[in-house]
Amino acid sequence: MSVLVVGISHNTAPVALLEQIAPRESTVPKLVAQALGFEHVTEVAVISTCNRVEIYAEVDRFHGSVEELSRLLVERVGGPTAAMLPHLYVHYDDGAISHLFQVAAGLDSMAIGEGQILGQTRDALRQGQELGSVGSALNVLFQQALRVGKRARAETDIDRVAPTLVGAALERCAEHTGPLDQARVLILGAGSMAGLATATVTRGGATRVTVANRSIERASRLAAEYDAEATTLSDLPAALAQADLVLACAGATGVLVTREMVEAARADGRPMTFLDLAVPHDVDHAVGEIPGVVRIDLADLADELHASPAGREVEEVRRIVTQEVSAFLSARRQASVTPTVVALRTMATSVVEAEMARLAGRLPELDDASREEILQAVRRVADKLLHEPTVRVRELANEAGAVSYAAALAELFALDPEAVDAVTRPDLSAGEVPS
User: Fold this and answer.
1) Do residues 313 and 305 make contact, with C-beta atoms less than 8 angstroms apart?
2) What's the pLDDT tens digit per position in 47-76?
3) Of 324, 306, 323, whose CA–CA distance to 315 is shortest?
4) Are residues 190 and 219 in contact, defined by beta-carbon separation less than 8 angstroms?
5) Angle CA(367)–CA(370)–CA(372) in degrees, nearest 5?
6) Strand 2-9 to strand 89-92: parallel, antiparallel, or no bridges (unpaired)?
């Protein structure tokens, strides 16, 4: 059995597409049930946010499962399959484990280090447990991912990276636009990065803040939190005409802001600054060629961020994730040989008991003390003979071909495959979710 994740996120698709695919909270159970109904899927958990939809599954077959889970996401849009597939990504087994740990640690978020994703990962696990779709495999994986996320935030300042990025960018903008408390600010988008940008400029005392989003409902919710105004992207030309500083965080298909739109919005010739924090970018690169207009994007901030304490925090979290993935895989490989070791020792115990029964029949005159002494001696011999092979097979589990070593041990000792399969781990599917 192996872990498979099929997903779509802000890294691979525009917000409009994510909004079409993302299930409402009330419909996630149906998505889980559909995934769990596939032949080769035994466990399912779904992480669904405004920036990602990911189906995690424990599967016994890769190809068929990928096709089925991908189809689930494609069908939510209803468009041509060929057009959707480039936006999907697949991670399998070791790659799936590494991806989930990065997600929980905040490395894969639009706003690097944001803490909301940790709670969303916890919610996915809890919902899977309540629906009965999470068994021991995904439970252990998600529990460890939550611990990795907590460790990343306890040992580093990763949760300060996104604010540091926005703060550094606004300092650059101030050089052209002037003090933030004298600027009219337009925020494009209503996701986590847009929320962070809105909070930052509001605390900075911006004169007027407007949130523009495709969905007026989401724009209104974000604007209401910070006493800002809300509008839709369809009214973007008018909003641009009333802005000095634009923070673009939507990540839409193509560009939202063109050179022609900016030239029309600057009829008064005022200076304007565009801070494009979106992936993919929202503001046409040509906007920066207009006299009196400055365009700054993530590429412009990359070197500055990498050299800053925030950049070092990201590298430290990556080190933690790498370390945790290695430890998790090592423990899993060692656990994979446990059924074989247990079956081998069970077989040895059966042989000892059979031989003692035969001895009792041949030497009925043996007293209880002598019989017990012989039993202990035979057990010690069996333990000593099995000690080295079982220790070595656990050590070799960390090397390439671990499954082959366990299989070789079973073959050499002629272990019954059904006896090996009968050795099960404790059922952790109903374990508590870390707070």
Assistant:
1) no
2) 998 778 999 999 998 988 999 999 999 888
3) 306
4) yes
5) 105
6) antiparallel
pTM: predicted TM-score of the whole model, two decimal places: 0.65
Contacts of 13 (CB under 8 A, 6+ apart): 21, 87
Token pair for 288: 């920066």
The catalytic residues are 50
Phi, psi for 268 (deg, rounded to 5): -85, 0
Which value, to the nearest 10 degrees, does the dihedral of the CA atoms of residues 152, 157, 158, 160 take?
150
Could you give the 3-state DSSP secondary structure of residue 119? helix
Task: Say how many C-beta atoms besides its own lie within 10 A of residue 303's C-beta.
Answer: 10
Q: What tokens were used for 283?
A: 């503001």
pLDDT tens-digit series, residues 229-251: 999 999 999 999 999 999 998 87
Give residue 58's identity as a one-letter amino acid code: E
Interacting residues of 94 by C-beta distance below 8 A, sequence separation 6+: 325, 329
Give 338-390 pLDDT, tens digit per residue. Answer: 777 788 888 888 889 998 999 988 888 888 899 899 999 999 998 888 888 77
Number of H helices, E strands in the chain: 18, 10
As a whole number of angstroms, the distance between CA 79 and CA 6 comes to: 18
**Structure-token pair, residue 207:** 């004169």
Between CA 229 and CA 222 the distance in angstroms is 9
Q: CA 176 → CA 28, 173, 180, 293, 381, distances in Å? A: 46, 6, 11, 9, 83
* Distance in angstroms between the alpha carbons of the first and the last residue of the chain: 28
Q: What stretches of 243-397 adopt beta strand conformation (E)? A: 245-248, 272-276, 293-297
Q: 324 and 304 in contact (C-beta within 8 Å)?
A: no
Q: Phi then psi for 243, rounded to 5 degrees?
A: -125, 145
Q: Which residues contact residue 23 at a Cβ distance below 8 angstroms, ignoring those fewer than 6 apart?
A: 30, 31, 46, 48, 53, 76
Give the pairing type, strands 272-276 and 245-248: parallel
Q: What are phi and psi of 208, to 5 degrees?
A: -150, 130
| Closest by Cα among 60, 74, 61 to 31 | 74
Residue 153's nearest CA partner among 114, 196, 96, 125 is 114
Q: Which two tokens stand for residue 197?
A: 């940008």
Q: What token pair was written down for 122?
A: 């916890």
What span, in angstroms and rounded, lies between the C-alpha atoms of 166 and 163?
Answer: 5
